[in-house]
Amino acid sequence: MIKPTNNRKKIKTTGLLNKSIDYSLQENSGEFYISEATASYGNNDKKSFTVYYDNPEHSVRLLKGDCIKILNQARENSVDMIFADPPYFLSNGGITCHAGKMVSVNKGKWDKSKGVIENHKFILEWLKACQRVLKPNGTIWVSGTTHIIYSIGFAMQELGYKILNDIVWYKRNAPPNLSCRYFTHSTEIVLWAAKNKDSKHYFNYPLMREMNQGKQMRNVWEISAPQSEEKKFGKHPTQKPVDLLTRLMLASTKEGDLVLDPFCGSSTTGVATILLNRKYVGIDMEDGYLKLSVKRLKEALAKKTTKLFKERTVTKSQTIHTDVHQIA
Ligand SMILES: C[S@@+](CC[C@H](N)C(=O)[O-])C[C@H]1O[C@@H](n2cnc3c(N)ncnc32)[C@H](O)[C@@H]1O
User: Fold this and answer.
1) What integer is the mean pLDDT of 41-54?
2) Which residues have CB under 6 Å of ligand 1?
3) Which residue is closest in CA terms to ligand 1's atom 13?
4) C-alpha distances in angstroms, 99 versus 22, 95, 176, 181, 218?
5) I want to staple 174 with a disulfide (CB 3.0 to 4.6 A). Which of 105, 186, 228, 319 is the partner?
6) Which of 48, 263, 273, 280 to probe ligand 1 with, by most ligand atoms within 8 A of CB?
7) Residues 265, 267, 272: CA angle, nearest 5 degrees
């Protein structure tokens, strides 16, 4: 279990309970936090977020608001790793195949394109905000398809990130292409980059090799779309599989590291942090997705507590057994 940080400073803020609550901020802990007292960077002068869910014991936290504004009020150099699954700007009246049926692509207002130039400006802004909060040796993973991935790669180069890898995520079970005028889309790209050219990024090479039957792991990962079990509390239209998140987290973080997801949706990233004993801050603007996040996070925490309890019980009974054996 991750130890909660001591040395906390109390401030008042509003939360899910719709009333003023005491929210403890870490002080001098070197961790990500935002406060009214924190200097604001860029043009964002006002605190414009709410703490939607907070579990300090396990270091799991959800913030509601615009991630750019929030990150520009957060402490710099405080995050070990970021996973960002931003809007792909796909919801523009096209069609796709869902459960064998033709449906229009409409994931939400947040996914509507504002045109190439405006979309690129938005990408530059949030990538810049992420870069500021990353620790000097921290890394960022960003998923995308052809609609945004070139803009993301270019923005990363403009901002001085160091691109480490482009992972090709292959989905064997991708839906067919209904128009029959294109190849079936069955991949996404996940770019992995370090904060800048001086970063000494962490890579758990031995573990990745072990997970790949003793051979160097390549940059093509075959991972299925989320299982129905992962959607039992409701669906997010662009939910990522937990398997994708656990793999990239194992590759680039250590236990206890702080992981940030600025576009958290249903908090797949958060579920993976709980499974792997990392700390989590997730941000989203939509109430419905944050509600879904809370359900998934609580379940992951409950399962983990039960598992730990069982492990402890087993260990205890083994000890008793050994003792009895020794006495006999
Ligand atoms: C592609 S989805 C992420 C899905 C997530 N990876 C999952 O597994 O559920 C992008 C999310 O970003 C949120 N979003 C869009 N613009 C945002 C912004 N400026 N600040 C915070 N969240 C934003 C949307 O509400 C949406 O839930």
Assistant:
1) 73
2) 66-68, 85, 87, 110, 236, 238-240, 263, 265-266, 268, 283-286, 289
3) 263
4) 45, 13, 10, 20, 31
5) 186
6) 263
7) 150
Rounded Cα–Cα distance for residues 310 and 277 (Å): 17
* Residue owning tokens 């691109």: 163
Q: What is the pLDDT of residues 241-278, one digit of tens each?
A: 999 999 999 999 999 999 999 999 999 999 999 999 99
Is residue 83 within 8 Å of residue 134, measured between CB atoms? Answer: no
pLDDT digit string, tens, across residues 280-290: 999 999 999 99
Closest CA to 119 of 74, 143, 89: 89
Cβ-contact 173, 224 below 8 angstroms: yes
Determine the distance separating the centroid of ligand 1 and the alpha carbon of 289, expressed in angstroms: 8
Residue of the CA atom closest to atom 26 of ligand 1: 265
| Residue 55 CB coordination number (10 Å) | 16
* Upper half-sphere CA count for residue 94 (Cβ side, 13 Å): 15
The predicted structure's pLDDT at residue 119? 96
Helix (H) or strand (E) run with residue 138 in it: strand 134-144
Just give the CATH number of 34-327.
3.40.50.150
The answer to whether the pTM exceeds 0.70 is yes
Q: Average the pLDDT over each of 22-31, 106-115, 176-185 and give the range with the smallest value.
A: 22-31
* Pairing status of strand 134-144 against strand 187-194: antiparallel
89 CA to middle of ligand 1, Å? 11
Q: Which amino acid is at 264?
A: C
Q: Strand pairing of 279-284 and 258-261? A: parallel
User: pLDDT by residue (tens digit) across 200-224?
Assistant: 999 999 999 999 999 999 999 999 9
